[in-house]
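Students often ask why we bother encoding 3D structure as a string. The short answer is that it lets us treat folding as translation between two languages. Here is a chain of 171 residues written in the first language.
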Amino acid sequence: MTEAGGITDEEAGGYAGAIIVEWPGPPKHGVGAIAGRAVTIYDAFSGDEPHGSHVTTVSSADIVIHAEAEGLVTADLTMFADEAGHPVFDGKPHFRDGEVITATFTFLVADMRTQAARLDGKGGKVAYVAYGEVTGGKNYQGLPMPAWDELPATIQDAWVAAAQAVIDQHA
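And here it is in the second language, the structure alphabet:
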């Protein structure tokens, strides 16, 4: 028996499986709409967290989430199907009479989460400056901190990695 998001594969019987829905992070400034193409779907039972195998839908517009107050959260995914009418998870289309076979399948939703923000290298400098503000511009030895641009590349990379690790762990 496999478990994902508290749902066992036995409980997923009657459904096409269980998925994880990953939304893009919030916009940097203000409120913005989420583009459907930015939503990623993962098979919750196949693979180690945080990401299982990516589920390929026919298009990003073919994902419908249902969250009934007295029921389970489910999602209808229109995706490739095989000749027997089963979902195809590898993204390779099957054909019947020269046409791609698609179908809509209902999945249990095991988890819905936001993609971790990517700092694009800027977070290291932000963290370094914040450290300096707290310590009065002194390093751990009590010596003056060099300016960010004067740090060796490996030290800058270490600050960037540390800042990104915090985002990844707490997103």
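Translate back mentally: The chain has two domains: 3-114, 122-170. Keep this in mind for the problem set.
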